[in-house]
Amino acid sequence: MMWKCGAFEFDSRVPVIMGILNVTPDSFSDGGAHADFASAVKHARAMVDAGAQIIDVGGESRRPGAAEVSVEEELSRVLDVVRQLADLGICVSIDTRHAEVAQACVEAGAAIINDVTGFSDPAMVDVALGCDAGLVVMHMKGDPATMQDDPQYDDVVAEVRDYLAGQASKLEAAGVARERICVDPGPGFGKTASQTMELMRNFHEICRLGYPAMCAVSRKSYIGAAYGIEKPADRDQASASEALAACELGASVVRAHNVEATAAALKDLRPYVLIGLGSNVALVANPGEETEGKIANLQQAITGLCSIPDTQIVDISSYYESEPAYYEDQDAFVNAVVLARTGVPPKELLRYLHAIEDSLGRVREIENGPRTLDLDIIDYQMYVVCTEELTLPHPRVCERDFVVKPLLELLPHHVLADGTPVTAESAVLGKATKL
């Protein structure tokens, strides 16, 4: 899945760093440090040299309680900087909630509009429709002046996810191409420290929307609360650790003050792997409870996956019942897909999967025949191989409904390592129904 931002595009399978350039006198962590033109441009170039692929220019403080600045004042702070950085060939994002500022900056060369109000202003939607810039749709409860006044949620993860889905859908309905949209759950914007922590620990739920997702936690107050770090400028290492955790859960854009620390942390990001699970022979089941027995096999397999070294499960699909494929004279299957991060190389991982199959009594007498458990590596990030032992991506992924449906539940619009998009239309075998 690509995020298209004007003349730039970014592969969401590999996180990109967005360096923060505040040209304000009152930002919460670095206000005034880069308020003049020369120091702003110098700092932006330093962030690019450190690994930033995008520079996010902001001319209005978003700290809690911050007063709104006029459009004229905001433009006086950001416009020349945006123009200069764009002229240098840098992908520039403008962080603004004002349509007039967004319009002027796009005309000056900005390739991304980062709107903390989630494009709730029709005038901002009009700006988006009149250009080809990438769009960051953020969730914020209230406005910067009031957002931390006792924010309340029944379910912060579900409410933020549903808001982002709704705003993105409105943009698409208005005519914005889906591939231009990135979503940001807005950590710290109208959320307490505990609410933000809950949101970030369930970041995979945001990724299930099928858009590139931004992790914008740098120096936020919840990090101070969680790690016991009072000064925002002292939170860079903790921020980098939180960014890595979010990327393990699927974040594809990281907004950061300290680009060098963030880039260093992301070197530890493990590849993602998609594993298909299937069973049509229950080990233990009373008459009429065969489906439950097959599900029990998959649950035991998931427990086994948790024991693989340097491997962490990120998300698990629903269970699906599917018709047998290839060899039809057998019972229906129960299938699922697991998304994980792993430091185990593919061939070694396959051996672990075979060991889990064997532990549940897998017998290989008939090709594609009945089995207590079947575990397949479907896709391994950026890894393509074709050998007698292992072929990746799995050569039959796209034709199998029992793989495609659970996979797209986790990763809508997923593109395999060899560049093949996974689509529901291609799945013609093993019709699957969610249980």
From TrEMBL:
Essential cofactor(s): Mg(2+)
Class in the EC hierarchy, top level: transferase
UniProt-listed Enzyme Commission number(s): 2.5.1.15
Keyword match Oxidoreductase: no
Molecular function as annotated in GO: 2-amino-4-hydroxy-6-hydroxymethyldihydropteridine diphosphokinase activity; ATP binding; dihydropteroate synthase activity; kinase activity; metal ion binding
One Pfam family here: Pterin_bind
Pterin-binding domain boundaries: 15-267
Biological-process GO terms, alphabetical: folic acid biosynthetic process; tetrahydrofolate biosynthetic process
Alphabetized PROSITE patterns for the sequence: DHPS_1, PTERIN_BINDING
Keywords: ATP-binding, Folate biosynthesis, Kinase, Magnesium, Metal-binding, Multifunctional enzyme, Nucleotide-binding, Transferase
Regions that span the bilayer: none
InterPro entries documented for this protein: DHP_synth-like, DHP_synth_dom, Dihydropteroate_synth-like_sf, Hppk, Hppk_sf, Pterin-binding_dom
Pathway: Cofactor biosynthesis; tetrahydrofolate biosynthesis; 7,8-dihydrofolate from 2-amino-4-hydroxy-6-hydroxymethyl-7,8-dihydropteridine diphosphate and 4-aminobenzoate: step 1/2; Cofactor biosynthesis; tetrahydrofolate biosynthesis; 2-amino-4-hydroxy-6-hydroxymethyl-7,8-dihydropteridine diphosphate from 7,8-dihydroneopterin triphosphate: step 4/4
A cellular component annotation (GO) from this entry: cytosol
Domain of life: Bacteria
Catalytic activity: 6-hydroxymethyl-7,8-dihydropterin + ATP = (7,8-dihydropterin-6-yl)methyl diphosphate + AMP + H(+); (7,8-dihydropterin-6-yl)methyl diphosphate + 4-aminobenzoate = 7,8-dihydropteroate + diphosphate
Family: Belongs to the DHPS family. In the C-terminal section; belongs to the DHPS family.
UniProt xrefs under PANTHER family: FOLATE SYNTHESIS PROTEINS (PTHR20941), FOLIC ACID SYNTHESIS PROTEIN FOL1 (PTHR20941:SF1)
Name the record gives this protein: Dihydropteroate synthase
